[in-house]
Amino acid sequence: MTRPPKPDPLDDAALDALLKAAPKPQPSAALTARILRDAATHQPQTPAPVVPERGLFAALADVLGGWPTVGGLATATLAGLYIGFAQPDLLSPADTDFVFDLTEEDALSGLLPGDALFFEEG
Amino acid sequence: MDMALDHSSQVTDDALLALYAAGDPLAASELTARLAPRLLSFANRMLRDLAEAEDVVQDTMLRLWKMAPDWVPGAAKLSTWTFRVASNLCTDRLRKKRGVGLDDIAEPVSETPGVEAQLMQDERATALDAALQTLPDRQRQAVVLRHIEGLSNPDIAEILEISTEAVESLTARGKRALAATLASRKEELGL
Known about the structure:
By secondary structure, chain A is an all-alpha fold. Chain A is 62% helix and 0% strand. Chain A binds chain B through residues 6-12, 14-16, 18-28, 31-32, 34-36, 38-46, and chain B through 20-23, 28-29, 32, 36-38, 40-41, 44-45, 50, 53-54, 57-58, 61-62, 65-66, 68-69, 109-112, 121, 124-125, 128-129, 143, 147-148, 175-176, 178-180, 182-184, 186, 191.
């Protein structure tokens, strides 16, 4: 009694095609919902952003128009102090007396006829 | 963060996990859409039980959510990591099922309705599943990951924690065994 011959094995191309065509189940809506419920349960909670309290100087700066304005004011103040302390003789009393004692008549008396034309033309 | 997900195909799995860990509400949904289908296909092929395969996928994703804050981007491929977890979970379940005979395991549920034209395709799928079940677990995992899920040999090596050469050997032996098992049904299946 002879055994029937073994059939030839499936060729490689046919096997590859069979494997490639194997059906793949898609996750059901219920499974997706289960997964997402777990995700929500275990999602790390991010802390709420901390808003720093506003200090007195920050509030004052806002009233004055912001930090650029405050910076400008500070610079002008320091410059004035510097000029006042470092060079107090820059303006002599004679200079200031001239400004304060000047009358309208004095101011206009020095004008020449050509000056009127200059003022008209701008 | 929502803006990034508008172009989600360009966002890496690593970046999505980082978004999830940072509290983004949409990242988990996108990661699930990317990872769950392949994990389910793999687990279903390993376990031949859709309900059990679903449990494995849920468990795998649960572990992913839990380790999200500790994930180091670039240290490993996220998809490979999830396949490794799923693979281990399947192996655990298969070990527990060892006492159950193959005949007692439910036939896989066909995902398509019984349309006449698809009868042959269903027959082939069933025959392939039955043939896959005759392979040792490691061979089956390697063949499914390589030839059904389309993963690379280095990725499979990482999942199964073996060398690339060992993966090549497993898949080659697995395919030879499948070809021999299916030989007797070639004509019946129109192969």
